[in-house]
Predict the structure.
Amino acid sequence: MPRHKWKPAAALLAGVIVCTAAFAQPLPVANSPAEAGFSAQRLEAARQAIKSNVENKRVPGVVLLILRGGKIVTHDAIGFQDRASRAPMKKDSIFRIASMSKPITTVAAMILAEENKLDIGAPVAQYLPEFKDVKVGIEGAPLKRPMTVQDLMRHTSGLTYGIFGNSPVDLMYRKANIFAAGSLAAMVKAIAGIPLLHQPGEVWEYSVSTDVLGRVVEVASGMDLDRLVRERITGPLKMDDTGFSVKPLSVARLAKPDTESNHADPVQKPAILSGGGGMFSTAGDYARFSQMLLNGGELEGVRILGPKTVALMTSDQLPPATERHTAVAMSLGAFGPVPEMGTSFGLGFAVRVDAGRNPVTGSVGDFSWVGITGTFFWVDPKEKLVAVMMVQSPRGINGELWRQTRTMVYQAMTN
């Protein structure tokens, strides 16, 4: 395995960047960047961009992992895992991945669909009877059609988050304080007692849909969401650091933002197993998950999903008439499912449907998602590329960081 030759860095970062050879990887490693179609010099430019963000105190530190053709091209740990204590970032640092939990929960649901335990075309009320009599808006309009499990997966359920808007329904969410419920079942019951913001199928509205999907998974499988994820996804894929809590012996590897946060104890199993935003992971773990998807549902002889199921998940799932210009979609910019950006949404993540329109590089058919903590991944099947960026960044700069990361990864490719 080759070592990168690093130029002397600023004193701030001396000794902080860890070389690729220092940490054994379970995935195969390319003999050189050139073997994988990357320029070593241009990869260094990507690292320098990250280093600049650290030196300018925009982010504490970053782990960037790139794979092509199933082999690691580079795995860089840059900056600080905890700037306050001067703890260096490590390749196996653990991050709160926020909404990058959603693809994992959606895969869990698709596993059950393949086993004939879950019908994604069925009404949600078939699994969660509390949604049987749900209405739309404070005026209580009847449903034009039932909310389906597929709607939960593609954010066309009519639900909302309650934190991104100020509609009467959003205010009802905030008043209900749904995330303070004592369990996922209680949270979902509270959600079902609030009117929908939209008619199912009519609007792409980023929402608690994946949290509700997690509860559907529990009902359909007969087990808690964390157990199903562990037994059917993270365990088979050897994603040892991915889950809803952090092992006591691993908590020292938890990356921290530069600003104070009021997160719950990461070691304790949370009261609410949030399939929409409650998981922890590492760049290495998430790369294994992403490579499984790129491989059509299989990794190292372990099959999680069938190829046609992955093809369904990564296809455009939004009907042409679906309104997409919601507050979150627009704030995501290049990464939101809006026609002006040549993007749409599949089952669990955004998908690119047009080569142009978007300000960031990519390919038709690539799929991706992000987390509000700054985490970001994408898979480009055309280029056989997986990229994972783990960071705990201020929300206000996330879009810029994501654009920078995609640009710097693609500029380093030579073929």
Remarks:
- The two ends are 22 Å apart (CA to CA).
- The first helix runs from residue 40 to 55.
- Residues 81 and 89 are 4 Å apart (CA to CA).
- Confidence is low (pLDDT under 50) at residues 1-25.
